């Protein structure tokens, strides 16, 4: 994939089977955290807000949503893994053909915002 100049070009240059998942992740982020600044960082879509960031990327057989270890706790990972998602310390893998775990991602995003606002307020 060539170096994307914006999120639209990133999605357009991703595998076609990734498009719907990437668009859905984008919409979840934008609707849950409307103040997030959308951009490209490390050649993938990143969303920055309150001093923190989240992002997503496309691979051959899955998309990855990066939320961070601060909110993706073992409890969340267990719930996601029971539903068939693979998780890492900071990420959720969504296979092409799998439904996006919208409710869980929204909850994680809200937790990330709340944590970031609290940290900013405490400083």
Quick overview of this protein structure:
The protein is of the alpha+beta class. The chain contains four helices and six strands; from the N terminus they run H-H-E-E-E-E-H-E-E-H. It has one domain (7-116): Aspartate Aminotransferase, domain 1, CATH 3.90.1150.
Characterization of the model:
It is a single chain. This protein is α+β, with helices and mostly antiparallel strands and 123 residues long. It has a single domain, classed as Aspartate Aminotransferase, domain 1 (Alpha-Beta Complex). Helix content is 41%, strand content 24%. A hairpin with a 2-residue loop joins strand 2 and strand 3. The longest helix has 21 residues. InterPro entries: YdhG-like. It comes from Fodinibius salsisoli.
Tally of individual domains: 1
| Cα separation of the termini | 40 Å
Rg = 14 Å
Helix content: 40-55%
**What is the second-level CATH architecture?**
Alpha-Beta Complex
DSSP strand tally: 6
> In terms of structural class, how would the helical and strand content be classed?
alpha+beta
CATH class: Alpha Beta
How many helix segments? 4
Q: What is the succession of H and E elements?
A: HHEEEEHEEH
How does the major sheet shape up? 6 strands, antiparallel
Which topology does CATH recognise?
Answer: Aspartate Aminotransferase, domain 1
Q: Could you list the spans in which at least 5 consecutive residues all have pLDDT below 50?
A: none
Our estimate of the beta-strand percent is: 15-25%
Major sheet: arrangement of strands = 1-2-3-4-6-5
Instruction: Indicate the mean pLDDT.
Output: 92
Overall outline: globular
């Amino acid at each position: 994939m060539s170096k994307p100049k914006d999120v639209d070009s990133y999605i357009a240059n991703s595998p076609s089977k990734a498009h719907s998942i990437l668009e859905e992740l984008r919409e979840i982020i934008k609707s849950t955290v409307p103040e997030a600044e959308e951009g490209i960082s490390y050649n993938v879509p990143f969303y920055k807000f309150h001093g923190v960031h989240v992002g997503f990327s496309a691979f051959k057989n899955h998309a990855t949503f990066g939320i961070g270890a601060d909110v993706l706790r073992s409890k969340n990972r267990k719930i996601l893994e029971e539903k068939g998602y693979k998780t890492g310390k900071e990420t959720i893998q969504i296979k092409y053909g799998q439904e996006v775990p919208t409710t869980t991602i929204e909850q994680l995003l809200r937790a990330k915002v709340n944590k970031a606002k609290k940290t900013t307020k405490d400083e």
